[in-house]
Amino acid sequence: MTSDPHAWLISLEGVPSGFAGARDGIDVVLRDRGLRRTSPELTAESLLRGAHASAVLEGSGSTLAEVRAGAGDEIAADAVRLATELLSLVPVLRRQPLQALARIHTVAARGSLPDELLGRPRDGESASRLRGIAELITAPTEAPALAVAAVVHAELMTAAPFGSHNGIVARATERLVAAARGVDEKSLVVPEAAHLALRPEYESNLRGWATGTQAGMHSWLLYAVEAWSAAAEASPLVRDAE
């Protein structure tokens, strides 16, 4: 029997219950506010908002209005280009996560790196880290799907396996894992906007995860509970109803 690589986090204080609460909040938004309102346009709006927020976290100076008008800077354009293709990678992520990660980087970094470096890890150590992350994505587990997404996000940020755009790749993958594991199949919540709204905590807790200590990793997971709750509130299902 294959061991569960996420089993360790189930016993951490506040983690299972916290993610259960965050999942309940997402389900309420998708069920109560999404019922009869869900459309491809709302998914596109969620993806656009997420692309803008992720680009800002990566250094973009573009506003959401500029991005919406197609007038964003290069980083924003990269994030939007990835957002338009992201959900088509759900079946690839489920079956061949390494291929999905390579494609995510290829789309995001096109034009920024030589073609031969697109989708390729920086070195042998990065390739090994990517293989480990791919196993985390598809491993059978009793851990909450949102926790798995948060772990994959933090691991990609810490490993920085590609030559560029690692933050955009990590945040896009977090969203994709949530879709692939059935939490938010139409990708209507906006985790990237939550991370931007909570930016000091986001960046601080990522540094904590990178230490590799249980305390640092525990703190990141508790942060992720808060972020996923905020992601539900950032959904166009909520904001457009206000």
TrEMBL record:
It comes from the Bacteria. InterPro entries: Fido. Residues 96-226 form the Fido domain. This is Fido domain-containing protein. The lineage of its organism: Bacteria, Bacillati, Actinomycetota, Actinomycetes, Propionibacteriales.
